[in-house]
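Need a sequence for this fold. Nothing fancy.
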């Protein structure tokens, strides 16, 4: 199963770049033998490696990451650990039941992370802000009303916010309404990933900047890296959108990019314009709108813009265009911040499936995996990583039943058909949410 491309998302990850520099990474050199390999050290792989080490304390486990921990996709999101994930009013009973399952899985992931952050004193700007959907016009206001209905149908206590309250939170006249419910957490995703890796059990060894270029099934399973080889009895894949290059999940998900920018830290005078206090974070109630955060170190994060990215790399012209768009979005909300320096702009890749499906379970002889997640990746990924280990060792639970009820991803057509339909879909989303950006 030869890989044709290894992960390369670039070094422009604002979350990662604002952390202290790391020491030199441990890399695979020569031949390394082990009982287990978890491939991919995002939140899912970190969770799987930890839970596996707890379940099998006498086994040796390698966690192998092509990037530095925290610089890959799990360290590139907007810094939400979502307790639920849904869009719209959830009028359809099947859609409502799916959202309930996702909510239970997401809440479970938040609670796992909450415990680990507390027990290991992980410094990641953890803040119980809650989930806040916001509107900036008629389409968003309709979305807020739908999300309020959805919260009610999910049995969650929600609170509607008017324009005055939204201005108190954000300092901006841009927002017209909002709806909030407790459960979602804000955090620094790259710092969270680093902290989780640093506090893994002693029988887990982390290798970084070690891309796997080939996987050969057998006894043992052999993984080829640039400077060596790993022989393992068992393999767990948590490689998400890079799985097709390794021979898995082909024609099952579309690689979609999202883009974000950080300003420099705001001055004391500038902070007067961005709300009563921070941190805070808002999600767009209208599709195609902007996710916005005031971070714990008093930056503004602006995330909007989607594109189909089959190459899974980011070029500077695209990032420059996104930086310009994000600067305009900031100025629309806070005219006093027009022209503020943007220090970092970056992209991340998520795997989108047609039916919100997820590959979960056995992929081959002594090979298991979790591939694609379609939203709430920090919390769901954490929970699904632990549940996959439960599945492997035969430990049953209601949450595992929820996970197993998620459908397998539907088949997607090959290029150029896939690209045509995906690009058309995201152009429609961009047009619909233009006023909300």
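Here you go.
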């Amino acid at each position: 199963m030869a890989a044709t491309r290894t992960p390369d998302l670039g070094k422009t990850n604002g979350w990662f770049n604002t952390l202290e520099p790391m020491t030199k990474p441990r890399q695979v050199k020569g031949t390394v033998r082990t009982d287990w390999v978890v491939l991919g050290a995002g939140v899912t792989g970190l969770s799987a490696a930890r839970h596996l080490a707890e379940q099998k304390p006498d086994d040796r486990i390698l966690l192998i990451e092509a990037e530095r921990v925290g610089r890959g996709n799990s360290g590139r999101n907007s810094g939400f650990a979502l307790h639920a994930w849904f869009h719209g009013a959830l009028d359809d009973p099947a859609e409502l039941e799916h959202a309930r399952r996702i909510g239970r899985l997401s809440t479970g992931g938040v609670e796992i992370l909450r415990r680990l952050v507390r027990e290991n004193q992980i410094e990641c700007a953890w803040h119980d802000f809650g989930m806040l959907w916001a509107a900036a016009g008629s389409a968003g206001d309709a979305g807020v009303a739908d999300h309020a209905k959805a919260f009610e149908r999910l049995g969650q206590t929600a609170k509607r916010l008017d324009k005055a309250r939204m201005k108190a939170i954000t300092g901006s006249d841009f927002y017209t309404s909002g709806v909030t419910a407790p459960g979602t957490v804000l955090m620094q995703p790259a710092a969270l990933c680093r902290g989780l890796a640093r506090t893994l059990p002693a029988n887990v060894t982390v290798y970084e900047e070690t891309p796997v270029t080939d996987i050969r099934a057998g006894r043992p399973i052999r993984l080829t890296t640039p400077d060596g080889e790993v022989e393992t009895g068992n393999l767990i894949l948590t490689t998400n959108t890079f799985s097709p290059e390794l021979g898995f999940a082909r024609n099952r998900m579309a690689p979609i990019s999202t883009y974000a920018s950080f300003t420099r830290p705001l001055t004391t005078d500038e902070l007067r314009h961005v709300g009563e206090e921070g941190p805070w974070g808002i999600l767009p109630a209208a599709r195609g709108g902007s996710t916005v955060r005031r971070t714990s170190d008093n930056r503004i994060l602006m995330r909007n813009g989607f594109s189909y990215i089959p190459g899974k790399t980011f070029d500077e012209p695209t990032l420059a265009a996104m930086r310009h768009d994000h600067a305009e979005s900031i100025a629309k909300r806070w005219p006093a911040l027009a022209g503020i320096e943007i220090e970092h702009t970056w992209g991340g890749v998520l795997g989108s499936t047609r039916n919100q499906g997820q590959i979960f379970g056995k992929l081959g002889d002594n090979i298991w995996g979790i591939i694609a997640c379609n939203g709430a990746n920090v919390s769901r990924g954490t929970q699904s990583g632990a549940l996959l280990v439960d599945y492997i060792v035969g430990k049953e639970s209601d949450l595992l039943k929820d996970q197993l009820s998620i459908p397998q991803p539907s088949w997607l057509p090959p290029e150029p058909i896939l690209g045509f339909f995906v690009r058309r879909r995201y152009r429609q989303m961009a047009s619909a949410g233009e006023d909300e950006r």
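For context: The two ends are 42 Å apart (CA to CA).
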